[in-house]
């Protein structure tokens, strides 16, 4: 057994020897059957010489078909087809030789035809059977060696993906996964078998398999499985203390084939409370190809993903603008390492620096601007309102004004659902920026009808995995053994993935005619407490035993429930059922332009209360929550 564990591939000469042995004894077997085991009759018909001839003929054919070159422990359909070809050619060769020997040797055949048929059929069976036997022996020995580490599991999905997953698992000696059964929602498959493993319907049998056969693992192997069903499967696995993994989409398989290493644990991102929104608008290519595109905040989670997606649409030049030196360098290195075929220009600069931004626009002449640069951390901006106003409002105004002067075609502004009925400085600063670009767009439409920059706004919720979001924070806290900090047991948020958010931005850039605020239909909001519990369980730990959850209270400016529209906003539908346009009355341009200019004087006075009070005059629905600025609302 130890020899077999060390022996990974049988040498070709051993396989050729075994095949020769099989051919010879199958011919002997043919003589025995043909002459009813009458040894004297067999001897009279020169069985030894005939069998030897059959073996030599087979060896010669094998030299042509190379049937002995396959790796036995990976025997598959092609190997079986090669063996079949070998046997058929050998059979045809002897039929041909029998014809001539019968003609010239007084009806004496090299092998009697009946013996030839029996020998060919039996050798085909044995040659394939012994290969499969060796394959299973290797598998048995492999599992025996790691018996203490064997994991008994089930595969959810008895279709093509499930079969491929089973083959990948069987071929991986280190995974130590033994499939006990298959589960599938299709009632037509119930009771059938795959690779000797029974198929059960749905999740009904999972608890029995856990109790009776020690199942500890489940692998989801279904393409296009709904998020709702994925959640149901995961919840049942977590209830039964079964680890759950998932087969990634086909386009993520290396070289088009699945390996056991690519089967990964289910992530919280897989369990969004709605179907992931996928946009595929061919007009994006038309709008971006051959254009100079600038992305501000290009080193951030949204900005960097925007750059990745834009690069696929073949812009003439992609300008990556950001103030974060290290993060911008990382994005640059990523583009180099992945050999992305798109000309890029890295610009280290601050959108608040008017001189720098003018220089960038004069030098590179961008035609499309995606403005993702912003301060977005709610408690941090509540502590430093001057920075939020300076970057999110004045920085946006600087970028927008220079875009107009530079005759940019489109300016797409990335906003947030925190701009709706804001309870914090960050949300209010983003709402003020929304108001400015909308007002500027209306002013240009009225006064410059022939040609003007089109300003479009996108508004979406929390982005899974983005810098500063709750998911990475919870992951770090779980790795440290807890506790996980949740601000309030009832707090909820809308979630979307980074690719979804960036697709919305690009789609808005194509659809927008100027002045619109685009929002996603983001499904039902997610309760953060439930999110925390599920993340703990998915990590293989128990809530309140291995990792505790503590409630820290709402942070400054934080609200329990996010909104996508305020009380005065309505929506109108678009060509895509998941994308809507918020109907918002724009502010008067000259009024808001003057109001924003006043911020510079207030910043110079260094008075936080005056800054925030002025922000509340621009955004009257801004009512502070859990913040020291609540006093300003009472004064009004």
Short account of what is shown:
Helix content is 48%, strand content 15%.
Describe the structure.
With 636 residues, the protein is an alpha/beta fold. Residues 1-7 and 250-257 have low confidence and may be disordered.
Labels describing this entry:
disordered N terminus; alpha/beta; single chain; 9-stranded mixed β-sheet; 15% strand; 48% helix; 636 residues; 7-stranded mixed β-sheet
Mean pLDDT: 80
The helix content is 40-55%
Count of distinct strands: 22
In spatial order, strands of the major sheet run 10-9-8-11-12-13-18-22-21
What is the count of helical runs?
A: 22
| Radius of gyration from the alpha-carbon trace, in angstroms | 35 Å
As a percent range, the share of strand residues is 5-15%
Described by strand count, sense and barrel closure, the largest sheet is: 9 strands, mixed
Contiguous uncertain segments of 5+ residues? 1-7, 250-257
Measure the end-to-end span: 85 Å
Return the structural class. alpha/beta
Q: What shape does the CA trace take? A: elongated
Task: Set down the secondary structure blueprint.
Elements: H1 2-6, H2 12-34, H3 39-44, H4 47-65, H5 77-104, H6 113-145, E1 151-156, H7 160-170, E2 177-184, E3 193-194, E4 197-201, H8 206-213, E5 217-220, H9 227-239, E6 243-246, E7 264-265, H10 283-288, E8 292-296, H11 301-311, E9 317-322, H12 325-337, E10 344-348, H13 354-364, E11 368-371, H14 378-383, H15 385-405, E12 410-416, H16 425-447, E13 454-460, E14 462-464, H17 470-479, E15 484-486, E16 492-493, E17 495-497, H18 498-511, E18 517-520, E19 526-527, H19 528-538, E20 549-551, E21 570-573, E22 579-583, H20 589-605, H21 608-618, H22 630-635
Parallel strand pairs: 1-2, 1-5, 2-4, 5-6, 8-9, 8-11, 9-10, 11-12, 12-13, 13-18, 14-17, 15-20
Antiparallel strand pairs: 3-4, 6-7, 16-19, 18-22, 21-22
């Amino acid at each position: 057994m130890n020899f077999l564990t060390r022996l990974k591939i049988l040498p070709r000469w051993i396989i050729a020897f075994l095949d020769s042995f099989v051919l010879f004894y199958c011919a002997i077997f043919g003589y025995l059957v043909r002459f009813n085991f009458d040894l004297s009759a067999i001897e009279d018909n020169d069985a030894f010489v005939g069998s030897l001839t059959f073996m030599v003929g087979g060896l010669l054919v094998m030299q042509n078909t190379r049937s002995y070159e396959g790796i036995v422990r990976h025997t598959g359909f092609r190997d079986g087809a090669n063996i079949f070809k070998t046997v058929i050619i050998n059979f045809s060769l002897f039929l041909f030789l029998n014809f001539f020997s019968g003609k010239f040797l007084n009806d004496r055949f090299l092998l009697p035809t009946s013996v030839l048929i029996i020998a060919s059929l039996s050798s085909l069976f044995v040659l394939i059977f012994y290969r499969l036997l060796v394959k299973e022996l290797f598998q048995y020995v492999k599992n025996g060696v790691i018996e203490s580490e064997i994991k008994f599991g089930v595969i959810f999905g008895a279709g093509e993906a499930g079969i491929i997953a089973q083959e990948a698992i069987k071929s991986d000696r280190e995974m130590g996964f033994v499939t006990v059964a298959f589960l599938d929602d299709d009632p037509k498959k119930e009771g059938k078998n795959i690779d000797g493993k029974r198929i059960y319907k749905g999740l009904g049998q999972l608890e029995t398999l856990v109790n009776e056969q020690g199942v500890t693992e489940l692998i989801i192997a279904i393409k296009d499985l709904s998020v709702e069903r994925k959640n149901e499967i995961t919840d049942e696995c977590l209830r039964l203390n079964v680890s759950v993994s998932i087969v990634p989409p086909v386009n993520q398989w290396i070289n088009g084939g699945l390996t056991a290493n690519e089967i990964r644990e289910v992530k919280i991102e897989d369990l969004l409370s709605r179907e992931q929104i996928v946009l595929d608008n061919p007009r994006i290519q038309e709008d971006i190809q051959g254009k100079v595109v600038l992305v501000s905040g290009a080193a951030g989670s949204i900005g960097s993903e925007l750059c990745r997606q834009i690069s696929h649409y073949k812009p003439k030049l992609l300008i990556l603008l950001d103030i974060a030196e290290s993060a911008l360098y990382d994005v640059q290195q990523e583009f180099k390492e992945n050999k992305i075929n798109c000309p890029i220009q890295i610009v280290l600069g601050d959108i608040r620096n008017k001189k720098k931004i003018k220089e960038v626009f004069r030098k590179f002449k961008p035609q499309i601007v995606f403005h993702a640069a912003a301060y977005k951390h709610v408690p941090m901006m509540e502590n430093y309102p001057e920075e939020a106003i300076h970057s999110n409002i004045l920085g946006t105004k600087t970028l927008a004004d220079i875009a107009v002067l530079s005759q940019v075609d489109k300016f797409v502004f990335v906003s947030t659902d925190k701009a709706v009925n804001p309870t914090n400085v960050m949300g209010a600063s983003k709402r003020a920026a929304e108001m400015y670009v909308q007002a500027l767009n209306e002013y240009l439409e009225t006064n410059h009808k022939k040609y003007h920059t089109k300003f479009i706004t996108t508004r979406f919720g929390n982005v899974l995995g983005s810098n500063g979001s709750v998911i990475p924070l919870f992951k770090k806290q779980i790795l440290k053994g807890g506790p996980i900090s949740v601000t309030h047991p009832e707090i909820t948020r809308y979630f979307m993935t980074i690719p979804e958010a960036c697709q919305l931005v690009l789609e808005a850039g194509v659809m927008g005619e100027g002045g619109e605020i685009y929002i996603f239909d983001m499904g039902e909001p997610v309760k953060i407490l439930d999110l925390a519990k599920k993340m703990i369980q998915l990590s293989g730990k128990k809530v309140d035993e291995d990792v505790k959850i503590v409630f820290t209270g709402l942070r400054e400016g934080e609200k329990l429930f996010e909104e996508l529209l305020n009380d005065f906003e309505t929506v109108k539908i678009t060509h895509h059922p998941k994308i809507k346009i918020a109907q918002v009355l724009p502010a008067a341009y000259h009024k808001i332009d003057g109001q924003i200019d006043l911020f510079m004087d207030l910043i110079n006075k260094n008075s936080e209360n005056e800054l925030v009070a002025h922000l509340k005059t621009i955004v009257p629905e801004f009512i502070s929550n859990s913040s020291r600025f609540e006093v300003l609302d009472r004064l009004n």
